[in-house]
Design brief:
With 319 residues, the chain is of the alpha/beta class. The protein has nine helices and eight strands.
């Protein structure tokens, strides 16, 4: 039996009303947490499945859940393996680890088969951020047809925060061959939460949303995850190379829209633009000046993002 799962509130970030929280178990035996909501009123225009990025948790997306429910959608949000309230893969729960990004496809399948399709109505749409968006692109590359449309926010196609990309890829693969896949990637010391400050952050220019998200982690530190392992980094580089292959753009027939942040210092906006120009059934837009976490950004950036969602997802309209 999967363990009992719960969603957490903070003073400024209460659980949206009507929540159902539970667990699904993947084909390889990993227990994952999910949250699920019906629309705010009786009308339902389908279901939006929300897929967070690396280190993120369901609680960070409560505001987005409210936005989507106000648009008459049911919503389901997944915590990927190894983060949030889902099962950790190593004895050190702070290590962000996966051996192969294909494992995340098991998470996607279990979530849809056990938590979404039996309980929530179609049509089904995907809203994914960063790592979550790259996993959804991998699903489409493999011929997956789980969603009518995908709305991908700042997909992780390459890393702008890695200065020496080729050398980093070679080093990760070399260290993995030495049997160090489960070791932390060599990086700076991870700051304790009390040393994390808004000034200089790469994620958002919105001070209030930044503070809200930090409070979630400070009050529920068990939901947090630290730096990635060498194995995770190698697996990420492997997937990003697959997604950069010209054959990938030809293989993806999934209708999708990628939205890039013009001031992204985490993932590469030029890589998103490059893939966007080659997709047969997809497109891309860039929101100038925005940082990586567009859904956590100031309203001046977040509102154009939601307008793009409304224009692309059938049946969506601002409340």
């Amino acid at each position: 039996m999967p363990p009992e799962m719960i969603l957490y509130s903070t003073q400024d970030n209460p659980v949206p009303e009507g929540a159902v929280c539970g667990a699904v178990t993947t084909s390889d035996g990993v227990n994952l947490r999910f949250g699920r909501w019906r629309p705010s009123n009786g009308e339902c225009r389908g279901t939006v499945c929300v897929f967070p990025g690396r280190t993120e948790k369901i609680e960070k997306y409560y505001e987005t859940v409210r936005d989507l429910r106000a648009r008459h959608f049911a919503v389901a949000v997944l915590d990927w393996r190894g983060q949030g309230g889902s099962q950790r893969l190593l004895s050190n729960p702070m290590k962000g680890h996966v051996g192969d990004f294909a494992e995340y496809q098991n998470d996607l399948d279990a979530f849809l088969e056990q938590a979404v399709r039996p309980e929530l109505p179609g049509p089904y749409f995907a809203l994914a951020h960063s790592m979550g968006a790259s996993i959804l692109l991998d699903h489409a590359r493999r011929g997956g047809k789980a969603f009518e449309r995908m709305f991908l926010v700042a997909p992780m196609l390459d890393l702008s925060l890695v200065k020496h990309d080729v050398a980093a890829r070679r080093l990760a693969r070399f260290l993995a061959r030495l049997g160090l896949s489960r070791a932390y990637v060599p990086t700076r010391r991870m700051k304790p939460l009390h040393e994390v400050h808004f000034d200089g952050n790469r994620l958002t220019s919105d001070r209030t949303r930044f503070a809200r998200n930090l409070t979630i982690t400070m009050e529920q530190p068990q939901l947090d995850v630290g730096p990635p392992t060498i194995g995770w980094v190698k697996a990420a580089f492997d997937l990003m190379e697959e997604l950069a292959d010209p054959a990938t753009a030809r293989a993806i027939r999934q209708p999708l829209l990628m939205v890039a942040a013009g001031a992204d210092r985490i993932v590469s906006t030029p890589s998103i633009e490059h893939l966007g120009t080659r997709l047969i059934a997809g497109a891309h837009v860039v929101i100038p000046g925005a940082r990586h976490e567009l859904l956590q950004e100031r309203d001046i950036f977040r509102e154009p993002l939601l307008a793009a969602f409304d224009a692309f997802i059938p049946g969506s309209a601002p409340p």
